[in-house]
Amino acid sequence: MLEKIANLVTFFNLELIDSIQIPANDRNIAFDQAIKIYINKPQVVNKWLAGSINIESEFLPINLNISSYEIEYKEFLSKNNKIFNNVKYLIINDFTDAKIVLFYPLKDEHISRESKYASVNFTHMFHYDKNEHKINLYVCKDDKLNEKFSLQVKWLTDTLLPKLQNWCLSVDFKDDNFNCAKINTLTLYSTFVNDYNQLYQELKDVYWSKFHAEWFELTNTNPEKYIHEDISIACYFILAWKYLGKEPKKFVDLGCGNGLLVHILNDQGYQGYGIDMRQRKIWSSQFYNETNLIEKTIDPKNDIYEDCDWIIGNHSDELSPWLPYIAYKTSRKNAQPCNIMLIPCCFFDFNSKFDVKRKNESRYDTYLNYLENIFKRFYFNLFKDKLRIPSTRNVCLIGLMEKMPSENEDDILNSLQTNLGTTNFVARDLDLEKLKSSRNCTKNVDNDLKIFIIRRVLDYLLEEEIFLNKYDGSKWNSGRTSHLSDIASLFDKTQLSKIKSECGGIKTLLKNYQQLFVFEKDFIRIRNQIIDTNSNNKRKKTDKKIYVKTKPCLFYLYHPNGCILDEKECLFLHDKQ
Questions:
Q1: Whether residue 41 is found in the same domain as residue 101
Q2: What are the pLDDT digits (tens) for 296-327?
Q3: Which pLDDT value is given to residue 392?
Q4: Which structural domain, as residue segments, surrounds residue 469?
Q5: Among the listed residues 335, 305, 82, 41, the one whose alpha carbon sits nearest the alpha carbon of residue 193
Q6: CA distances from 562 to 482, 566, 567 (A)
Q7: Per the structure, how many domains does the chain have?
Q8: pLDDT reading at 513 higher than 60
Q9: H, E, C per residue of 166-216
Q10: Residue that terminates a domain, selected from 405, 427, 449
Q11: Whether residue 200 has pLDDT greater than 70
Q12: What residues are paired with 92 via a beta bridge?
C-alpha cells in the first residue's frame, strides 16, 4: 500500500499540502463513494461545471506502470465555454488497498497556457489514511509557477476537501452506485450533458438578452428564474426529441402560462401553440410576434388536439394526471401516436388535491409514482429524467405511444378511479382564488417576487466575506451590515412601487423574514443563529412538549454555505423538497 502511494508521489513529483480529519466513531468511511460523486457529478461542488463525461484515449500519456491501478478518462465540462475551457483527466485510482485517486490533466495543444479552466488543471491526488482517519491532499510541485495555482489550491483545501469529508460520513459505504438521488440528471443518453450544455449557451445568448430587461415589468415575476427555466426546458425537449427520433409535427402546451417555452420552441423551428385559461400581459408584447397563444379553459374530457402529436405539460398542475388520457384519446382519434412531455409540479389527482404520502417517501416521489401508474395504464412507454432547472420539482416524464391503442379511454379512466366519487375535471376559479388571497404581507406579495427579493438582498450582504465556523468546521459567510438605503438601491422603481403598494415597503417585507435577517434601526445584517435569537427561536426550557419542525430552513435553501447549525440543532427543516 505504502509503495503504491510512494510510486505516484515520486513519479508525479507530489507534495502533501493539507489534510482533513474524518471523525471515524467506529463507522465505515465511504471514501470511495465520496470520490466517485466528485468524479461523476463535479457540478455539485463546482458551480462552473456542467458535469462530466467518459472519454477515450488511444494511448497512455505517461510512462508509468499502471498494472496495479485502475484508470479511467474523464472530461469535466465547463458550464460556459466562452469563459472557461473543459478539463480532460487521466484518473488513476486504487480504492481496494491504498485508497488513493490521482487526477492528471491531459494537455490540449490547441489551448494556450493563458486560457482559463473550469476545473483544477494541475496534477493532484487524494489519499485516505485509514490509520489516522484523514484525507491527505497532494499537489504537483512543478505546477507552482502556474499563476492560477494558489487560487486552485485554495479551492481544493477550502471547498473540495470539506465536501469530501461530509460525503465520507453521509453516503452509504455499501452503495456502489453512489446515487445522490433516486433519479439522476440528464441521463437520457450518454453525451446528453455535453450536448445540453452547448445548446443551453446558444439559446441563453439569444433569449436572455431578448427578454430580461422588460420581463419583470411584463410579468411581475423573477426573470432569473423564469427565463432560465424555460430556456433549460426548451433545450431538454429539443435534444430529447432528436435522440428519440420523434421530433413533433405539431405540439400543444396545455397550461402554457407566460408562453415563453412555446415562443422559444417556435423560434427554433418547431410548430406548435399554447393554451391557458388566462391571457398574460406578455402575450401581446412585441417580443412574441407570431407565437400562437390561446386563452381558453381546457376540458380534458371533451377536448381533442387532432393536429398534434406531442402534448406538453410544464407545471400543468390539475391537468397533469389528465395528460395521458388526453394524449391517448388524441392518438385514437388521429389514428397516429400522440406523445407526452410532462414536468409535474403541484399535486393533483383527477378532480382534487392529491394528499397521499407513502411511508419513507417524499410527497413528490409518491406523486411521481402515482403519475407513472397512470402513464403505464394508458399504454405509454415511460422515460424519467431530471432536468437542470431552478426548481425542486424538476423531473420530466416522457410518455411514448409505441402501439396504437384499442381500449376505450373512459374505461381505463374508470378503472383508475374506482375509489373516487367523480370523474369530472374541475378547473380553477380565478375569481375565487383572488377572494381567498390573504392581506398578510408575505402572503399577499407574489411568491416568486418574494424569493427574488430575499435572494438579491442575501447575495448583496454576502459580497463582503466575513467567515465563521459551521457546526462541521467548514466556513460560513456572515456577510456585511448595510444601511436600508443601500438595500433599496438594489431594486428598480417598478419593483419598489409594487412592494410598497402590496405590503408597505421593502423593510416591512424583509422584517417578515426574521429567520434570515436582523434589523438594528435602519441597518440590516444576516442572522447568526448561534448568537442571535428571535421570536421564532424562543422556547422555554420548561416546555416539555415535543417540538415539531414544519417550516423550511431558509439558510439551508438559499445561503451558499448552507445552515450554520446542524440539522438536529436548527429549529427548521433541512429539506430541499
A1: yes
A2: 999 999 899 988 999 999 999 999 999 999 99
A3: 81
A4: 438-558
A5: 41
A6: 21, 10, 11
A7: 3
A8: yes
A9: HHHHHCCCCCCCCCCCCCCECCCCCCHHHHHHHHHHHHHHHHHHHHHHHHH
A10: 427
A11: yes
A12: 71, 102
The set of cell numbers assigned to 365 is 416521489
Inside any domain, residue 43: yes
Residues 295 and 386 in one domain: yes
For residues 68 and 152, state if they share a domain.
Answer: yes
pLDDT of 546 reads: 41
Amino acid at 262: V
Q: Would you say residue 270 lies in a domain?
A: yes
Q: Give SS3 for 72.
A: strand
The set of cell numbers assigned to 561 is 454555505
* pLDDT score at 481: 92
Identify the residue whose cell numbers are 406531442: 310
Q: What value, to the nearest 5°, has the Cα angle with vertex 537 and ends 534 and 540?
A: 115
Q: Judge if pTM exceeds 0.90.
A: no
C-alpha distance from residue 402 to each of 40, 336, 340, 378, 381 (Å): 33, 10, 12, 11, 7
d(C-alpha 477, C-alpha 467), whole Å: 4
The helix (H) or strand (E) run that includes residue 382 is strand 381-386
The predicted pLDDT at position 283 comes to: 94
Amino acid at 294: I
The CA-atom distances, in angstroms, between 163 and each of 107, 196, 223, 558 are 27, 26, 31, 18
Which range, 16-25, 165-174, 180-189, 338-347, is most confident? 338-347
Q: What is the pLDDT of residues 102-143, one digit of tens each?
A: 999 998 766 665 678 889 999 999 999 988 899 999 999 887
Count Cα neighbours of 518 within 13 Å in the Cβ-side half-sphere.
Answer: 15
| pLDDT above 50: residue 547 | no
Answer yes or no: is 225 within a domain.
no
pLDDT(545) > 70: no
Cell of 51: 458535469
Residue with cell 505546477: 143
Q: Dump pLDDT digits (tens) for 473-484.
A: 899 999 999 999
Is position 383 within any domain?
yes
Are 407 and 444 in the same domain? Answer: no
Instruction: Concatenate the DSSP letters of all residues of 297-310 into one string.
Output: ---TTT---TT-SE
**Cα–Cα distance, 293 to 147 (Å, whole number):** 53
Statement to judge: residues 70 and 105 lie in one domain = yes
Contacts of 543 (CB under 8 A, 6+ apart): none
pLDDT at 435: 43
**Domain holding 76: CATH number?**
3.30.530.20
Contact between 92 and 101 (Cβ < 8 Å): yes
Strands 251-254 and 339-343, sheet pairing: unpaired
Continuous segment of H or E residues that includes residue 370: helix 363-377
| Shared domain check, 72 and 53 | yes
Distances (CA, A) of 431 to 169, 298, 315, 354, 435: 51, 17, 21, 22, 6
